[in-house]
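Much of our argument rests on the idea that a fold can be written as discrete symbols. In the encoding step, the backbone of a single protein was reduced to a row of integers, each denoting a local shape. This step matters because it turns folding into a mapping between discrete strings. For completeness, the protein is quoted in full, as a sequence line and a line of structure tokens:
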Amino acid sequence: MTKMMFRIATLILALATTQTILHAQERESMGMDPMLGTWDVHVTVVDCNDGHLIRTVRALQLFSRDGSFSETASTYLRGSSVGTWSHGDQRRAYVASYWFFRYNTDGTPHSIAEGLNSMTLNPDGQSFTAKGTITDSDLAGNVISVGCVTHAATRLSGPGR
């Protein structure tokens, strides 16, 4: 009985894995972009020159059908991001550009940040990684800093979920 239960559990797991991969392929063949949906993103920002850690942030990112991008992050010192996303130059490659405000601890505006990311969607369509930059400018438009970012994301909702 235990062997049979193990075999059934193994078969179910194999079928579920196959279905996930097939869902990603089916979405693409039906003209649905596998990037669509909501993602749980772990963001790491480092100094581009020496690699020292500046901050880590957790974010929720939404990739919409019309090419719009929105994001909210786990810190009160920045606002929501708005921007756009599109296909990159390779299969499962994407680019996004977006902006958000940063705030001082008293709630007054500090800067505006521009993010530029290159993303690679994993073949199963359930996760992606990204690399990019965040450029902070003061409210007069003068560049304050540039940070290098990496993202590790997992799907929360969207096609195939």
Remarks:
- Residues 2-29 form the longest helix (28 residues).
- The helical segments are 2-29.
- Residues 2-22 have pLDDT under 50 and may be disordered.
- The two ends are 33 Å apart (CA to CA).
